[in-house]
Design a protein that fits this description.
The complex is a heterodimer of chains A (175) and B (776). Chain A has 175 residues and is an alpha/beta fold. Chain A is 34% helix and 24% strand. Chain A has a single domain, classed as Rossmann fold. Chain B has a single domain, classed as TonB-dependent receptor, beta-barrel domain (Maltoporin, Chain A), CATH 2.40.170.20. Chain B is built from 10 helices and 36 strands. Classes of the chains: A alpha/beta (175), B mainly beta (776). At the A-B interface, helix 1, helix 2, helix 4, strand 7 and strand 8 of A face helix 1, helix 2, strand 28, strand 29 and strand 30 of B.
Chain lengths: 175, 776
C-alpha cells in the first residue's frame, strides 16, 4: 500500500508530462551540431565576396550526419556547404576545417599545413589544442567540452567572441 | 504468474506504452544553443563485450548495462558491491554473517550463478580475485570471487556490465558476465566529499571521506589521484540467545565493523610522438571485525571467561594492483598496446577474545590464525585495426597466478584450536601456482548498415590442465533504424581457481576411542585422502551460451531491450559434503587414513541457467526544463541442476547443494528507477523487488518471501561547485521475513539467527545518510 502511494504521483507526473523530450544524444550528432554552432562565435574566417559558408571535413568520420544536419543551414547569413575531402590539397575556400582523430605526428603535419590560414580548425583529437589546433572537443563525464587555443586563432587573424571563451578552457600550445 | 500481477510492474509498463506517442523524434538541434548542446548527455557507451572499441550500449550484440559516475554518486552508497546491487537487476550480493571470512569479503553473483563465474576488468584489464575461498554454507560456497569493495568509488567513471558469456574474448571466468570498471580519465575536476549515515536502529554508523586530486599534463595527459577512507560500525540484528537462562542478544549478526582505506592513482602521459604510457595503481587496506557464535559459560572456558565469550574474527585485507602499459598507433587505423598488471589480495585472519579449550587456563585470548594470498601477473600485447566496415583485434596474453596459505600460530590450531575460527596448520600451508598463455582474435564486419557480425576465438594453454579453445559468434540485424535484433552463441570455460586446487584447512585431535591422532576438514583434491575417497584432478568448467534479443528505440529518449539467455555449464566445480563414512568402503578409507571426515572439490554438476532480461528507459523534458527519467529493469533467471555426478562425494540426496544453486538466490528482480530534475534539485527514487528464495536447514527447504524496498536521494546544488545530498536506502525499513516453521538455538525464528544469510538485501534495515560534495 505504501508503495502504491509513492508510485501514484510519479505515474500521474508521467501522464501529465508534455513538451519536447531529450534524454541524450549521439556523440557524433552533438559534435556535428557543435561544429556549426562554433562558427557563429568566430569571425575573421569569412572572406569578402564569398557567397557560401564552407565546412570542410577531412576523412569524414561522421558518415551522412554532416550533410543531413548542416546542409540547408545558414551561418553568418550564408548557406552552408559541406565539403568532404581526403587531402588538404583539396581544401578550397573553407571557413572551417574539421580534422578527425589522428596520431600527434600526423596532426602536426596537418596543422603545419594550416599554419596562419584564416580557417577555423576544429578536432576531437586528443591534445589537439596544445599541438596548435584552435578548438578541441573532448568528452568528460558524458558531456562534450571545449578547449581553445586562443593564441593560434589570433595568429590566424580569427576573432573568438568572449561568450564562447567563457564556456571553454583556454590552453596554450606546448612547445 | 503472481509476479506479473504486481501493481508497480504493470503500472509502469502501462505508463511506458501510454507515453510512447509523446516520444516522437524531434530534431531540434538547430534551435538549441551551444551551451545547451554542451549540457546534453552523450549516449551511454561501453567497451566491454567487443575488442573493437566503445560503442553505444544499445548497439551491442549482447545486453550491456552502464552505471555512470553520477548514478554512483546519487546512490549515496560507499562500496561498489552496494552500488551494483542498487542498480542492476539480477546482481545479487547477500550480506552474510557468522560465516568466518565470508563476512568480510562480499560474494556477488550475476543471473544466480557463482561469484567466480563473473570476470571483472579495470579499464579492460583482468582484475585479480580475492584470496578468500567461501567455504561455509553461503551463496557462492566453494568459490573465490573478486572483491569489488577494494576500489574507491570516486575514481570510477562508469561500470559496464556485460550479461553474456565472453570467455572467447577474455578467457576464464567470463561465464555469467563481465564487469568492466572504467576509471575517470582526462578532463576531470578535483573534488572532495564527505558522507555520513546511520541505520534506523541507530547502529551501523558510517563516516566516509573521499577526495580526488587532478593534475593536468601536456597534450591532455593527467594524473588523477583518489583517496578514500571510511569507518563502518556494526549492526546487531541477531535474536536473543535461547541457550541462556535469561536470553539476550550476545552474537553479532549483521554488518561487520570495518575501517577502509582506498587509493587509486590513474595517469596517462601522451607524448608528442604519439606514444602514450599509462600507469594505474589501486590499493585497499581493510580491517574488518565480525564474530562467531557466542560461547556460553562452560567447564571448558570459565577459567578464562566466567561469563562466556564472543569470539571476534578479524580480517586484515590488503589488496593492490599495479598496471602499466604503453599505447601507440602505426597509422591507417592500426593501434597497439603493451601492458603489464600485477595484483595481489592478502587476507590475514586473527581471532580476539577467544581461547583454545585444550590449553585451558594457559590459552592465549588473541590468536594469529594465518592467512591467504592470491597473486596474479598478466602481460598483454594487443593490436587493433579499424576500417570503415570492419574491425580486427589480435592479441596475446601471458598470466601467472600464485596462491599461498600461511599457517597461524600453534595455539590457533593445536588441540581444539581457537574457538570461532581454527588457524591454518603447517600442513595446510602452501605456495603454488600456474601459468597460462593465450592467443585471441576478434573480428567484426558490417554489411551495409543493417547487418553486423562478430566472431571471436581464444586459445589458451594452462600449465595444469592443458589447452582450451573457445569461440563466439554474434550478429545484429537492424531492419529499420529504430529496431535491432541481436543473437549470439559462444563456448566458454572457467579454470579451477587456485583456491579450489590448493586450499586446505584441517584440524587434528586425539580420537579418544582409537587413541590416535585424527584429522578432519577440507582436503586438496590431490591429497592422498581425497584421492582415496574418489577425488580426481579438477578439470575446467565448460560452458555453452546462447542469447537472442531485441532493442526497440523509437526515439532518443525511449528504449526497450528484451533478451533471452541460456547457459549450460558442465563439470561445474563444487565442494563435496563432509564425507564421514556413510558407506562401508568410505569408512574403511577414513579409518585407514585416521580421518574422521573430509571434503574436497569435485567436478560434480551440470547446470543450466536461462531467463530473460527486460530494460525500459524513457525520459521527458517537462515545463521549465524539468527532466523526468524513468527506468524499468527486470531479470528472471532459472538455475537448474541437470546432472549430479558426485553422488559418492556429495550429499546422498544433494538437497543442500542443489537447493542452494536452484533456489538460494532470487529468480526474479525488478528495479524501477526514477529521477526528477528541477532547477537545482535532483530527486531519485528507486523501487526494488527482490524475489523469493529458499535455504535448507537439515533436510528441509525453508522459503522466504519476495520483498520491495525503496531508496531515495535528494541532491541540492548549493553553488556551481557544491552539492548537498540526503537520502536513504530501504527507507521504509523493510526486513526479510524470519524462518517460517523453524525454531532452534542457532537458526530459527526464535534463534540467534532469525533471518536467512541468503537475504538479497541484508537484514540491517533502513540506512539514512547525508553527503556533501564539492568540485574545484
Amino acid at each position: 500500500m505504501r508503495l502504491r502511494l509513492f508510485l501514484m504521483p510519479i505515474i500521474m507526473l508521467n501522464l501529465l508530462c508534455i513538451g519536447q523530450v531529450d534524454a541524450y544524444e549521439s556523440e557524433d550528432v552533438l559534435k556535428v551540431s557543435i561544429i556549426a554552432k562554433l562558427a557563429k562565435f568566430v569571425s575573421g574566417n569569412d572572406s569578402a565576396g564569398v557567397q557560401s559558408f564552407t565546412i570542410a571535413i577531412l576523412n569524414n568520420p561522421f558518415g551522412g550526419l554532416p550533410d543531413r544536419l548542416l546542409t540547408g543551414k545558414r551561418i553568418h547569413n550564408h548557406p552552408v556547404i559541406v565539403q568532404h575531402i581526403d587531402s588538404l590539397k583539396k581544401l578550397g575556400d573553407a571557413q572551417i576545417l574539421f580534422i578527425p582523430r589522428m596520431s600527434p605526428s600526423k596532426m602536426q603535419d596537418v596543422l603545419l599545413a594550416m599554419n596562419k590560414k584564416h580557417i577555423l580548425t576544429i578536432s576531437d583529437s586528443r591534445g589537439f589544442a596544445q599541438l596548435g589546433g584552435m578548438i578541441q572537443m573532448y568528452t568528460a563525464s558524458r558531456r562534450l567540452k571545449l578547449k581553445i587555443n586562443l593564441d593560434v586563432a589570433r595568429q590566424a587573424g580569427l576573432r573568438i567572441r568572449s561568450s564562447l571563451l567563457k564556456i571553454a578552457e583556454i590552453v596554450k600550445e606546448e612547445k | 504468474m503472481r509476479l506479473f500481477n504486481l501493481f508497480p510492474f504493470a503500472a509502469f509498463l502501462l505508463m511506458a506504452v501510454i507515453a510512447l506517442p509523446l516520444a516522437a523524434y524531434s530534431n531540434e538541434d538547430d534551435q538549441e544553443s551551444l551551451e545547451a548542446l554542451l549540457q546534453t548527455d552523450i549516449e551511454l557507451k561501453a567497451e566491454v563485450g567487443s575488442r573493437s572499441g566503445e560503442k553505444n550500449m544499445l548497439d551491442a550484440n549482447a545486453p550491456v548495462d552502464v552505471i555512470t559516475a553520477k548514478q554512483i554518486e546519487q546512490s549515496g552508497l560507499h562500496s561498489l558491491t552496494h552500488v551494483l546491487r542498487y542498480y542492476i537487476a539480477g546482481f545479487n550480493a547477500p550480506e552474510t554473517s557468522v560465516a568466518d571470512g565470508s563476512d568480510h569479503v562480499r560474494a556477488f553473483t550475476l543471473r544466480g550463478m557463482a561469484p567466480d563465474q563473473v570476470l571483472v576488468l579495470v579499464n579492460g584489464k583482468r582484475l585479480h580475485s580475492a584470496a578468500l575461498l567461501h567455504v561455509n554454507g553461503v551463496i557462492g560456497r566453494g568459490s573465490s570471487g573478486v572483491d569489488l569493495d577494494t576500489i574507491a568509488l570516486k575514481a570510477i567513471e562508469r561500470v559496464e556490465i556485460l550479461r553474456d558469456g565472453a570467455a572467447a574474448q577474455y578467457g576464464s571466468d567470463a561465464i555469467a558476465g563481465v564487469i568492466n570498471i572504467v576509471l575517470k580519465g582526462m578532463g576531470q575536476k578535483s573534488s572532495l566529499s564527505i558522507n555520513s549515515g546511520v541505520r534506523s536502529k541507530r547502529d551501523g554508523k558510517l563516516i566516509q571521506g573521499e577526495g580526488m586530486l587532478v593534475v593536468p599534463l601536456p597534450y591532455d595527459g593527467f594524473i588523477n589521484a583518489t583517496l578514500s577512507a571510511d569507518r563502518q560500525q556494526q549492526t546487531w540484528r541477531g535474536g536473543p540467545d535461547p541457550r541462556l537462562a535469561t536470553p539476550r542478544i550476545d552474537t553479532h549478526v549483521g554488518i561487520p565493523a570495518a575501517t577502509n582505506y582506498k587509493a587509486v592513482i590513474h595517469t596517462e602521459i601522451p607524448l608528442r610522438n604519439g606514444l602514450m604510457p599509462y600507469v594505474t595503481a589501486l590499493g585497499n587496506q581493510r580491517d574488518s571485525r565480525a564474530s562467531a557464535f557466542y560461547r556460553p559459560p562452560s567447564v571448558s572456558n570459565t577459567m578464562l571467561y566466567p561469563n562466556g565469550f564472543l569470539p571476534e574474527i578479524k580480517a586484515k585485507i590488503t589488496d593492490y594492483t599495479l598496471m602499466a602499459g604503453i599505447k601507440g598507433e602505426w597509422g591507417d587505423g592500426l593501434s597497439w598496446e603493451l601492458s603489464q598488471a600485477y595484483g595481489s589480495n592478502k587476507f590475514d585472519f586473527s581471532v580476539n577474545n577467544s581461547m583454545n579449550y585444550t590449553l585451558a587456563g594457559a590459552s592465549p585470548m588473541v590468536f594469529d590464525n594465518g592467512g591467504l594470498q592470491f597473486i596474479q601477473q598478466t602481460t598483454n600485447l594487443d593490436f587493433k585495426q579499424h576500417r570503415s566496415a570492419w574491425d580486427l583485434a589480435l592479441g596475446a596474453e601471458y598470466r601467472s597466478e600464485t596462491y599461498q596459505i600461511t599457517a597461524g600460530n600453534v595455539a590457533s590450531y593445536t588441540g581444539s584450536a581457537s574457538q570461532g575460527f581454527a588457524g591454518f596448520r603447517p600442513e595446510n600451508a602452501v605456495r603454488d601456482g600456474r601459468t597460462t598463455y593465450a592467443l585471441y582474435g576478434d573480428a567484426s564486419y558490417r554489411f551495409v548498415n543493417t547487418l553486423s557480425v562478430e566472431a571471436a576465438v581464444r586459445s589458451e594453454r594452462y600449465s595444469d590442465f592443458g589447452m582450451t579453445t573457445n569461440m563466439k559468434l554474434a550478429a545484429t540485424y537492424k531492419p529499420m533504424p529504430t529496431l535491432m535484433f541481436r543473437t549470439g552463441f559462444s563456448t566458454g570455460f572457467r579454470a579451477p581457481s587456485l583456491s579450489q586446487l590448493f586450499y586446505s584447512q584441517t584440524s587434528s585431535f586425539v580420537d579418544t576411542v582409537t587413541n590416535t591422532l585424527t584429522t578432519q576438514g577440507t582436503f586438496r583434491p590431490n591429497d592422498p585422502v581425497a584421492i582415496a575417497l574418489g577425488a580426481k584432478p579438477l578439470n575446467p568448467e565448460k560452458s555453452r551460451h546462447a542469447s537472442i534479443g531485441t532493442v526497440f528505440q523509437p526515439s532518443k529518449h525511449f528504449s526497450l531491450m528484451v533478451d533471452y539467455f541460456y547457459t549450460l555449464v558442465d563439470d561445474r566445480i563444487t565442494l563435496s559434503n563432509d564425507l564421514a563414512g556413510a558407506t562401508v568402503a568410505q569408512a574403511a578409507i577414513l579409518t585407514a587414513n585416521h580421518v574422521r571426515k573430509a571434503r574436497f572439490f569435485v567436478n560434480g554438476l551440470t547446470t543450466t541457467t536461462q531467463g530473460i532480461d527486460v530494460r525500459i528507459n524513457q525520459a521527458y523534458i517537462l515545463a521549465h526544463q524539468d527532466k523526468l527519467s524513468l527506468g524499468l529493469w527486470f531479470n528472471y533467471n532459472r538455475n537448474h541442476v541437470t546432472k549430479f555426478k558426485g553422488a559418492a562425494q556429495l550429499h546422498p540426496t544433494g538437497l543442500d547443494q542443489i537447493d542452494r544453486l536452484e533456489n538460494g538466490q532470487p529468480k526474479s528482480s525488478i528495479k524501477l528507477l526514477t529521477q526528477y530534475q528541477h532547477n537545482d534539485w535532483d530527486l531519485v527514487m528507486n523501487f526494488n523487488r527482490f524475489g523469493g528464495y529458499k535455504q535448507v536447514i537439515g533436510n528441509t527447504s525453508y522459503a522466504f518471501d519476495a520483498k520491495w524496498t525503496t531508496d531515495l536521494n535528494v541532491t541540492y546544488t548549493l553553488s556551481p561547485s557544491v552539492r548537498l545530498a540526503v537520502g536513504g536506502s530501504n527507507i521504509f525499513d523493510v526486513t526479510p521475513n524470519k524462518w517460517k516453521g523453524l525454531s532452534g538455538n542457532f537458526y530459527g525464528n526464535n534463534g540467534i539467527k532469525p533471518y536467512s544469510r541468503y537475504s538479497p538485501f541484508g537484514y540491517s534495515g533502513a540506512y539514512y545518510y547525508a553527503r556533501l560534495m564539492a568540485d574545484f
